[in-house]
Predict the 3D structure of the following.
Amino acid sequence: MRKRAIAAAALAATLSLVVAGCTGTGSGSSSSGSTITYWASNQGTSLDNDKQVLTPVLNDFTKQTGIKVKLEVIGWNDLQTRIQTAVTSGQGPDVLNIGNTWAASLQATGAFLPFGDSEMKAIGGKDKFVKTALETGGASGKTPTSVPLYGLAYGLYYNKAMFQAAGVQPPTTWEELVTDAKKLTTGGKYAFSLAAGSYTENAHFAFINSAQNGGEWFDDKGDPTFTSSENVDGIKRYLDLMQTDKVVNTSNAQYDNGVQAVNDFATGKVAMILSQNNADSSIVANGMKADQYGVVPFPAPEGGKPVASHVAGINLSVFKNTKNKDAALKFVKFMTSEDTQTTLGKPFSTLPVLNGAKAVFTDNADEAATFQKIYNEMSKPLPLVPAEDQFENTVGKAMNDMFAKIATGSTVSDSDIKAALQTAQDQVKQSLGG
């Protein structure tokens, strides 16, 4: 997901500044004929493309309900600032998209409508949502202040021809993955391309690899537990793809987003990448045909937990001070309906967040089923705490530094990883006042 973490402490500090009754127009009791404002995140190839995709969908909503929607599509680089400003001033939209990992941080501001029993009933009931997707709606044990809209998940993409030439099958365990990768690293080509300079992707795979070990990054009180053996081992395993297994080019330490890795894969420079399902359009756009690659879940070590992804995606929130609560909830119900999920799933390359709904982002039935299984059954939410953004920032950047160290020929040991995680943990504790 293209996102930036929101600073929880800064947002929480704005809570006292939020004023009531500044968003929207009209009445909360009679929604027909009202107008709501909607901030959509950039999901497609451009802001204009998103407007073209969403406009007919929103027109259908207006025809069905009489409620007009004032749409604004906002890029990910700007969305966090816009939300923070809206929280501070109270001058925000009625409904907005958020990165689902922001949910607990935003919930802590008190600026967003809780989806209690009556609100859930108004949007079709909580049971319609995939359980793990709904869990991303806010901090554990609290009434959610967002609901799932678009789903995303990581998968292991592999080049079928390269695998056949090397005489290997798609791996089902980490041990098989490393063995296969070594066979595929030959003739000046590497098996893997990683976004090893992207702090967000590094944080994601720190989380996933640790989760396969049964690790956690925060305790029940929300305090960081970064230095556990499960976390250290998970990071070491991932770093060793470059360091000891040597199946990743050291130049990948400079790859600061997933685009470079996808390009390497699509142009035949590597046999495997780890990417979310919205990479398909970029892979095909770079010249690779859909039948030339396959996807399997990111494998865990033998005996590990089958966690192949975090629950990635986009959620919908409603500002608490909206004057159009009924209309806003009708809109949330519409956007999370199976019909709308199907309509938007293909152009935005997303997975449905509803139980029983089928993925339509690709015409490849096997790939669609694989990603749906990963999302529904093999994913785990990132830490549901207000300091989640700080976890991504501190741990992800520590991994950037460690990959950079490996790329220059230095060695990163378990003790080095633990020391880096201790520094990250201390930074988070300090920000939490500990």
Observations:
- The chain has two domains: 8-152+311-380, 154-309+384-431.
- Confidence is low (pLDDT under 50) at residues 1-29.
